[in-house]
Specification:
By secondary structure, the chain is mainly α. It is built from three helices and no strands. Helix content is 69%, strand content 0%.
């Protein structure tokens, strides 16, 4: 199974809002802890090491692009 990069949500804005709202009232440390816990729960739900590996690569690529100087 390949990583899906298109939205699988009927209402993707609602999914985004739900995640943002889950951070409400958390300090930076608690927010990072929440993110890590959510990632582990979802990784376990996926249950496929190759999909997880591909998702990690996609996320790292996205972070690297954001960190790259804009020209």
């Amino acid at each position: 199974m390949a990583v899906s990069t298109t939205s699988n949500f009927a209402r993707p804005d609602d999914a985004f809002r739900l995640i943002v709202e889950a951070h409400r009232g958390l300090n930076d440390e608690d927010s990072a802890t929440f993110d890590a816990a959510l990632v582990l729960v979802l990784a376990n739900h996926i249950g496929d090491i190759e999909v997880l590996r591909d998702a990690i690569a996609l996320a790292r690529h996205g972070v690297a692009q954001q960190a790259a100087p804009q020209s």
